[in-house]
């Protein structure tokens, strides 16, 4: 169909999608790949001529609770998959982020987009990233060819592994048509240990101590004073069988007693708190600020934020025990890119500009710039899978 001067293709099957891509390749027509369109404002501005939507490729194709595996077409709403899993007491392990609060977007996140952007939240420190749970994909390459990689059950992952390559490729290598994830049981008890009043250095030290213990956290975050209230909050989530959780909470309290008297939060209050951490909701307003997602060595997180704060006004909080920093700063000038990339280079890690006006995203590196040897590899992978550069051109890196 036509939308203004932009054509939108909405295939209802993998075969139809393959035909559309093959025809686009014949015309060298650049395609913007979209699912629920909740992350359209993330990445470099589009450089395309038509839109290829995966929302017509919807439906759960396999669910084996005993094997703990679910497969669905890529346009299946994430909420539909999570609801099905919840009925059987299961969940996606990696706690995918909902970008809508931060990006002020609408629509429904899709399961294919979760795989395409390697979408991972606070539970990554325990369960790994989306990439680690993704065991099978089907996709259409830039020649219009359907490709399958991986398996539909955990014990049958065979063949050339393109699964990990597609995860986090942001739709630049192919149109995902089906994805398969392993799942985990929902835990009997979920609770959070909360320390108050710690500064960033003391909080990250406490989180590192807890994460280094045998008492298994599934979330480790720190909210500095002013982010979620007048006092700082250091959060440690503990999950599992009720007796195990009770024991581990007691041991963690003893381990961290010099940091203060830890309180327990659970139920809907705890769930709401972790959703806000997951979605970076604390930085959603003001919506004019630029927002960065910075990964670094956990113990050096406070060093990174201190370096940025010496250069410009900023607000931030930590996830992954200090290894993930969500940081907001004014979008004016260079949106903090000079200070942030210098701090990350000194400490190690990478930074992604998650939210900024289109003009800013067009002028800056949104994703971490790659050294030339890695950029040559990236270009080679792109050329192998999408020789005419049809899919999301320039979304991650200019000219790729």
The end-to-end distance, rounded to whole angstroms, is 27 Å
For the record, the count of structural domains works out to: 3
Please state the second-level CATH architecture of the largest domain.
2-Layer Sandwich
Radius of gyration: 21 Å
Question: How does this model look, in words?
Answer:
There is one protein chain. With 400 residues, this protein is α+β, with helices and mostly antiparallel strands. It has three domains: 1-186 and 371-400, Uridine Diphospho-n-acetylenolpyruvylglucosamine Reductase, domain 3 (2-Layer Sandwich); 189-278, Alpha-Beta Plaits (2-Layer Sandwich); 281-363, Alpha-Beta Plaits, CATH 3.30.70.1710. Helices cover 32% and strands 25% of the residues. The protein has 14 helices and 19 strands. The chain has helices at 14-27, 78-87, 100-103, 111-116, 124-127, 130-133, 163-166, 200-211, 242-255, 267-278, 301-311, 337-347, 358-363, 372-385; strands at residues 2-3, 6-9, 31-34, 50-53, 60-64, 69-73, 90-91, 134-140, 146-150, 175-182, 184-185, 189-196, 219-223, 233-240, 263-266, 290-296, 314-319, 324-329, 349-355. The strands form five sheets. It has a five-stranded antiparallel beta sheet. Strands 1-2-4-3 form a four-stranded mixed beta sheet, with no helix packed on it. It is globular.
């Amino acid at each position: 169909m036509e939308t203004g001067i932009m054509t939108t293709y909405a295939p209802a099957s993998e075969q139809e999608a393959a035909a559309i891509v093959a025809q686009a390749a014949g015309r060298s027509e650049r395609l913007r790949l979209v699912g629920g369109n909740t992350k359209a404002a993330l990445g470099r501005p589009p450089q395309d001529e038509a839109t290829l939507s995966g929302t017509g490729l919807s439906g759960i194709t396999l669910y084996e609770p005993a094997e703990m595996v679910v497969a669905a077409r890529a346009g299946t709403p994430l909420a539909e998959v999570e609801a099905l899993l919840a009925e059987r007491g299961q969940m996606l392990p990696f706690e995918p982020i909902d970008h809508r609060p931060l990006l002020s977007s609408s629509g429904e996140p899709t399961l294919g987009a979760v795989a395409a952007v390697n979408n991972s939240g606070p539970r990554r420190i325990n369960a790994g990233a989306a990439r680690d749970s993704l065991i099978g994909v089907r996709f259409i390459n830039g020649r219009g060819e359907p490709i399958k990689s991986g398996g539909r059950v955990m014990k049958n992952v065979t063949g050339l592994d393109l699964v990990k390559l597609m995860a986090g490729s942001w739709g630049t290598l192919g149109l995902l048509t089906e994805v398969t994830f392993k799942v985990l049981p929902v835990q009997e008890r979920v609770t959070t240990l909360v320390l108050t009043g710690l500064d960033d250095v003391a909080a990250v030290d406490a989180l590192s101590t807890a994460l280094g213990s045998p008492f298994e956290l599934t979330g480790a975050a720190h909210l500095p004073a002013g982010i979620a209230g007048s006092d700082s909050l250091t959060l440690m989530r503990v999950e599992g069988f009720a007796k195990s959780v009770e024991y581990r909470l007691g041991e963690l309290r003893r381990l961290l007693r010099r940091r203060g008297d830890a309180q327990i939060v659970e139920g809907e209050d705890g769930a709401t708190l972790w959703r806000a951490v997951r979605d970076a909701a604390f930085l959603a307003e003001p919506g004019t600020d630029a927002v960065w997602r910075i990964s670094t060595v956990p113990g050096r997180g406070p060093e990174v934020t201190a370096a940025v704060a010496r250069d410009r006004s900023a607000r931030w909080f930590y996830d992954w025990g200090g290894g993930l920093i969500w940081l907001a700063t004014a979008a004016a000038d260079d949106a903090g890119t000079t200070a942030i990339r210098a701090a990350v280079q000194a400490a190690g890690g990478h930074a992604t500009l998650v939210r900024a006006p289109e003009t800013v995203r067009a002028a800056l590196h949104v994703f971490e710039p790659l050294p030339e040897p890695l950029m040559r590899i990236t270009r080679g992978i792109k050329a192998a899978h999408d020789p005419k550069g049809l899919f999301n051109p320039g979304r991650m890196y200019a000219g790729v």
